[in-house]
């Protein structure tokens, strides 16, 4: 069976690439931990020491991925395995490109072979990432004082 193709989604945010990168990587400000958490809704998530880490209120940790590229205003890339073993990770790349005074943010998610059902995993993420990018977009607008 062939590997499913990458999931690719884009959003335009009203910020320059550096600011868009800052908001995206301040993931704890917009990620919906109440519904998308490994450890529970009272947790936090953020980039710490080259990893994306979720921490519970009682100090438990769950590694969601390892950063493989960190270029502020250009790209962030990481392995992606929230709630899964790191050896079964997929790959997430988010790029930031200026389009006038705004930024086009492109999210690409690939590497489905580590999933028991690669096609179903890809389909789930293809449905879920637009919602996550919508939350990021909302946070970028709110952080700039733009009416939503």
Give a structural overview:
With 148 residues, the protein is of the alpha+beta class. It contains two helices and seven strands; from the N terminus they run βαββββββα. Strands 1-7-6-5-4-3-2 form a seven-stranded antiparallel beta sheet, with helices on one face. The model has no long low-confidence stretch (mean pLDDT 93).
Average pLDDT, rounded to a whole number, is 93
Largest sheet at a glance?
7 strands, antiparallel
The low-confidence parts are none
Number of domains: 1
Per CATH, the class reads Alpha Beta
Structural class given helices, strands, pairing? Answer: alpha+beta
The share of residues in helices is 10-25%
Please give the order of strands in the largest beta sheet.
1-7-6-5-4-3-2
CATH topology type: Alpha-D-Glucose-1,6-Bisphosphate, Chain A, domain 4
Quaternary status: single chain
Number of helices: 2
What is the topological layout?
Blueprint: E1 7-13, H1 17-25, E2 44-48, E3 51-55, E4 61-71, E5 75-80, E6 90-99, E7 102-110, H2 118-143
Antiparallel strand pairs: 1-7, 2-3, 3-4, 4-5, 5-6, 6-7
Helix pairs in contact: 1-2
What labels describe this entry?
Alpha-D-Glucose-1,6-Bisphosphate, Chain A, domain 4; 148 residues; seven-stranded antiparallel sheet; 2 helices
What's the gist of this structure?
By secondary structure, this protein is α+β, with helices and mostly antiparallel strands.
